[in-house]
């Protein structure tokens, strides 16, 4: 093992990410070029659409269009995600081993194309005469699309740790990623469902949504895949070892393991909440039309707050800033427990309609959530790159693909377990599935949906902070 101090001072060579275009360049702690930040961040727009739209709308599609029971809809999402626990680290290890010869570009390009096609297929090729068969077809297509997404998402995350030695520069990288992540949420949640209902809420609406958002995925992800082809990245002096040795390196990296567990716990709760977003606005608030405005307010607030969180992370440190943002998110999320349909009219906005007190409170929550959510997500990814850099300083080799793959796998596992939790809770509270459109629900069933959007994710967030209290990143 190389001492941390000598490894930190070593000037590392750089890799050439394209097989046809190879050159050496010095990578230092100098600021990463703004054009590189934009090209890197753009890919997260499509990645966020693929992550969030199925998480939010696939259970709704399965239960209201294909007649699949809520508990079975959760399993349809879970089974492909379980495979990713193995797939993501394997993709990361594979990309580590071939990056010196081919770079990560082939993974990014193939992942971008296949992910986009898989997304379109999910909502257009899954209808059949039997709800059980529809569930099976959806599960298979989601399995293939999720595998393709691993080919993009894992190398994409690994690249962030190889763009700079400077931890604050890596935070800048994640700020740009979060800007496009927020825009991705705006498209995935704020545009997708209203577009479906604007087109009548039937097969035509779902098909148009799938084609439009699939094209968004393809274009944005290819911008990153092709735009980073010739950007020099840090290259470790030591070649990756066997797969077992690459995976074994994770066991000695305690900061990574603590961060991994923290994010797994909080993401399960968030995923359960994401699963019922459509149900919340349809049944609990009874205002589908407000979704675009909620997401727009959240997006604007989140993007505007990025410079503030970047400055605070410099002043307070990433860990303290992360705790403050996470705790604030849990507090505002718990207030969703008190939502109900608006019973008054405060103002009427042309082109929008009548706004009541509950509508304004929804938008206020959106602003606060936008501010704090972008912070703890951005900082968790920035701290991930710190743990990878710590591995490089410890051993002279980072295996960033393996670390990114495992982190990505656990994130996807959480977003698979979330719908299972949601499906079980909804079934326990008496949610009624249907075909051809949404069915009326009892107040008890709606209460279950509200719990999934409020107290359950707030509780998991608090629990995750207890785990995070064990996070310590050595400086040498």
Strand content: under 5%
From N to C, what is the helix and strand string?
A: HEHHHHHHEHHHHHEEHHHH
Please tell me the total number of domains. Answer: 1
Shape: globular
Mean pLDDT: 85
Number of strands: 4
Strand line-up across the major sheet: 1-2
What does this structure look like?
- It is a single chain.
- The chain is mostly helical and 476 residues long.
- The chain has a single domain, classed as Growth Hormone, Chain: A.
- It has 16 helices and four strands.
- The protein has helices at 4-9, 34-64, 70-102, 105-122, 131-160, 167-198, 203-227, 243-248, 254-275, 277-284, 291-316, 318-334, 357-395, 400-428, 443-453, 455-468; strands spanning 14-15, 233-234, 347-349, 353-355.
- The protein has a two-stranded antiparallel sheet with strand order 1-2. Strands 3-4 form a two-stranded antiparallel sheet.
- β3 (347-349) and β4 form a beta hairpin.
- α2 (34-64) runs parallel beside α6 (167-198) and α4 (105-122) packs antiparallel against α5 (131-160).
- The chain is globular, with a radius of gyration of 22 Å.
- Mean pLDDT is 85; it is low at 5-28.
């Amino acid at each position: 093992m190389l001492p941390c101090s000598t490894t930190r001072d070593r000037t590392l060579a750089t890799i050439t990410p394209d097989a046809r275009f190879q050159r050496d360049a010095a990578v230092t702690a100098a600021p990463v070029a703004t054009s590189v930040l934009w090209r890197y961040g753009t890919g997260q727009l499509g990645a966020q659409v693929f992550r969030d739209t199925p998480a939010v709308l696939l259970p709704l599609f399965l239960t209201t269009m294909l007649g699949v029971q809520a508990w079975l809809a959760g399993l349809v999402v879970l089974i492909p995600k379980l495979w990713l626990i193995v797939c993501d680290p394997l993709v990361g290890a594979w990309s580590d081993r071939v990056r010196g010869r081919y770079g990560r570009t082939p993974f990014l390009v193939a992942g971008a194309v296949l992910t986009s096609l898989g997304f379109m297929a999910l909502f257009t090729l899954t209808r059949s005469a039997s709800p059980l068969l529809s569930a099976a077809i959806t599960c298979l297509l989601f399995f293939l699309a999720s595998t393709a997404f691993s080919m993009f998402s894992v190398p994409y995350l690994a690249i962030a740790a190889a763009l700079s030695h400077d931890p604050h520069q890596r935070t800048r990288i994640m700020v740009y990623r979060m800007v496009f992540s927020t825009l991705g949420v705006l498209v995935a949640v704020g545009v997708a469902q209203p577009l479906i209902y604007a087109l009548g809420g039937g097969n035509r609406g779902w098909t148009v949504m799938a084609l439009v958002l699939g094209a968004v995925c393809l274009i944005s992800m290819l911008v990153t895949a092709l735009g980073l082809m010739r950007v020099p990245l840090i290259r470790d002096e030591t070649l990756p070892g066997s797969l077992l040795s690459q995976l074994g390196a994770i066991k000695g990296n305690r900061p990574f393991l603590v961060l991994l567990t923290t994010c797994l716990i909080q993401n399960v709760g968030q995923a359960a909440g994401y699963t019922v977003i459509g149900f919340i606005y349809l049944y609990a608030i009874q205002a589908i039309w407000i979704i675009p405005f909620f997401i727009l307010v959240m997006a604007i607030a989140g993007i505007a707050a990025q410079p503030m969180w970047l400055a605070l992370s410099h002043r307070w440190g990433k860990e303290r800033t992360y705790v403050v943002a996470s705790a604030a998110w849990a507090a505002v999320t718990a207030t969703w427990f008190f939502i109900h349909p608006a019973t008054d009219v405060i103002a009427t906005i042309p082109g929008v309609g009548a706004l009541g007190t509950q509508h304004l409170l929804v938008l206020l929550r959106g602003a606060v959530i936008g501010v704090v959510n972008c912070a703890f997500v951005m900082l968790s990814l920035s701290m991930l790159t710190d743990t990878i850099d710590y591995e490089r300083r410890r051993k002279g080799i980072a295996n960033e693909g393996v670390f990114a793959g495992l982190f990505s796998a656990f994130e996807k596992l959480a977003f698979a377990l979330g719908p299972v939790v949601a499906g079980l809770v909804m079934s326990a509270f008496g949610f009624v599935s249907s075909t051809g459109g949404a069915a009326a629900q009892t107040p008890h069933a709606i209460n279950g949906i509200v719990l999934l959007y409020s107290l359950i994710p707030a509780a998991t967030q608090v629990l995750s902070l207890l785990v995070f209290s064990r996070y310590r990143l050595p400086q040498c």
